[in-house]
Each structure stands twice: as C-alpha cells, then as structure tokens.
From TrEMBL:
Signal peptide: none annotated. It holds the Pfam family IU_nuc_hydro. InterPro entries: Inosine/uridine_hydrolase_dom (IPR001910), IUNH (IPR023186), Ribo_hydro-like (IPR036452). Residues 4-299 form the Inosine/uridine-preferring nucleoside hydrolase domain. The keyword Hydrolase applies. GO terms for molecular function: hydrolase activity. SUPFAM superfamilies: Nucleoside hydrolase. Keywords: Glycosidase, Hydrolase. This is Pyrimidine-specific ribonucleoside hydrolase RihA.
C-alpha cells in the first residue's frame, strides 16, 4: 500500500491512528517523528514508544522534533488528551528510547534514501515538516505525497473560532508546507468531526478483551469525557488522526475532494491559523484552478468508525 513516515503529537487520536496503521500488514511505517502539540514532543515520543511496544514493533525508530513553534511558543492540550497525552492513565515508561537523530533531519535523510517512495502523514503541528523543507529545498520532489490532518474549511475551528489546533499551533510552518508545491491531501475538521467513535464502539473494544482493545478503551475514556462536556453534549469522539491515516493508505475514499489552492492566515488577528481554501468553484463542480496543489477532503462516506473498531478488534 504505502511506505509512511508518521509525524505526530501522540495524543489519544494519534495513538489510535498509529494502531490502525500497525494492524495493516500491507502498510510499512519507516519512522515516527514527534512534535509538540497535544503534549511536549518528548512526551509524544514516549507515548509513541508505548504504542509500538504494545504491538511488538520497537524496531520502528522514533525521533523527537520541535518542542515549540517558530515563535517559541507551545500551546499544549492536556484538557483534551490528559497531562500524559494518554488520558492520565499513568502507563509504565516504555522500554525503548527515541533515536538521537532529530526529527527533521530524519525526515530529510529517509526522503533522500528513498526518492519518490515515502508518504508523509502529518498528524500534529507542521513545524518538523517546515524545518525539513528548509534543510532540503528539494524535499517536495523527493517525497511521494503528504497527507495532513489539519485545518477547517467550511467548519468552525476548534482551537479558535477560525482555526484548527494543528494549524493554529504553527501557522507560519503550515503556510510553508501547504504552499511548497508537493502533492498534499488535507483532511480538515469538516470531515473528521463527522466521523464519531461512540460508546457502542468502545463497548465492542471492551468485549474483544485484547491488550490493544483494553488499551484503547482505557485511553478513550478521557477523550470521550472531553467531547461530551465541551463539544457534542453526548458521548462521542472525533476520529481526526485515524481518519487521515485511513485516507492516506486508501482505505477511505473521499466523496468530495477538490484540488484547490490553500493559504494560511499568519496574521495576529482573530483569523490567525485559519486555512483559507479557494472553494469558490463549489457551484460549478470545482473547475481546474491555476496554482492549485492541495486536495482538500470535504466529504467522506462516514463509515470509518466501524472500520476502525473492526481493525482494532481484528
Ligand atoms: C488535531 O489536534 C490534535 O489535538 C489532535 O491529535 C488532532 O491531530 C485535531 O484538531
Ligand atoms: Ca494529532
């Protein structure tokens, strides 16, 4: 299917995305690189190593990346993911350690070693990818594809009224990545907020009773609490990162995904971090657009939560 570098801020839904991919024997994860976002990048690396240990894949290297954005700030999200990023579950420390190679350098090295083969799946702020672009200006020609969970096109933001968290955490980096000219698929809140994992899905996981399903049910408790109290008013969790993973490897085909130009608001007003996609063609079936480079996923079939539960139980 795909050979991936997963860049993430693990994080409850990042952990789900990793487990989803790790359960597919046809997907190869060459490396996981971590970035600040839900938690600090070092904590995200520890959480990633825990997930890899759970499925016996300590052979996959984990590299730590940016601990703040280009302005030197890091807005973490313990209220969504817990202080530890995994729902305050107090899991034991992983046995393995991250590599000493920094994330952006690892991305550049692997891209040079595998020209045209690697698909980068970005599930956190885009600081590592932007840093990698600065280190290797030829990166857009070395990488096969970039799939990004981020942005809000017609949907409101979640960090601010206008901006989604991954983009809002480093709008300057996001702008650079979205305009680098490489083939990008953007999976925004417009689709991730409608793919909801419910308490029934969690019951299925509990029933399966495997180490993986027990782990996922445990970490999801905090995430479901957050969504119930702050977002939906009912038990349900948005499948942001796992949906982006499923789209990246072709398991979910978008039903509406125009290729358009996307820019990011890097100003200091209320729009900071907003993704401005040129979807003015929506009444004419999105005619071809000059300078368009981003496939923006605006519609899916909405069957993904079942697929995710099946995969994790299987
Ligand atoms: C995105 O932000 C992070 O909190 C999640 O892991 C996801 O990648 C959703 O806005
Ligand atoms: Ca994430």
């Amino acid at each position: 299917k795909e050979t991936l570098i997963v860049d993430c801020d693990t994080g409850i839904d990042d952990a789900l995305a990793l487990l989803y991919l790790l359960h597919d024997p046809e997907v190869e994860i060459r490396a996981v690189t971590t970035v600040f976002g839900n938690v600090d990048a070092t904590v995200a690396a520890g959480n990633t190593l825990r997930v890899l240990e759970l499925v016996g894949r300590e052979d996959i290297p984990v590299a730590i990346g940016a601990r703040s954005n280009w302005r030197g700030t890091a807005d973490l999200a313990p209220f969504v993911h817990g202080d530890d990023g995994l729902g305050n579950t107090g899991l034991p420390a992983p046995a393995a350690a991250p590599t000493s190679e920094p994330a952006a350098e690892m991305i550049v090295r692997l891209a040079r070693e595998n020209p045209g083969r690697l698909h980068v799946l970005a599930l956190g702020p885009l600081t590592n990818l932007a840093t990698a672009l600065l280190l290797e200006p030829d990166l857009p020609r070395l990488v096969k594809h970039v799939t990004i969970m981020g942005g809000a096109v017609r949907h409101p933001g979640n960090s601010t009224p206008a901006a989604e968290a991954n983009i809002h955490n480093d709008p300057e980096a996001a702008r650079m990545v979205l305009r680098a000219g490489w083939p990008v698929t953007l999976v925004p809140l417009d689709v991730t907020m409608t793919e909801v994992f419910t308490e029934d899905h969690v019951d299925r996981l509990r029933g399966a009773g495997t180490p993986v399903t027990r782990f996922v049910a445990t970490i999801l408790a905090h995430y479901l609490d957050f969504y119930e109290q702050n977002v939906f008013g009912a038990r349900g969790a948005a499948c942001h990162d796992p949906l982006a993973a499923a789209i990246a490897v072709g398991d979910v085909s978008p039903v509406l995904a125009p290729v358009v130009a996307v820019d990011v608001d890097t100003g200091d007003g209320p729009g900071r971090g907003a993704t401005v996609a040129d979807i003015r063609g929506q009444y004419r079936d999105f005619p071809a657009q000059r300078g368009a480079a981003v496939r923006v996923v605006l519609g899916t079939e909405r069957t993904f939560p079942e697929l995710l539960a099946d995969r994790l139980c299987g």
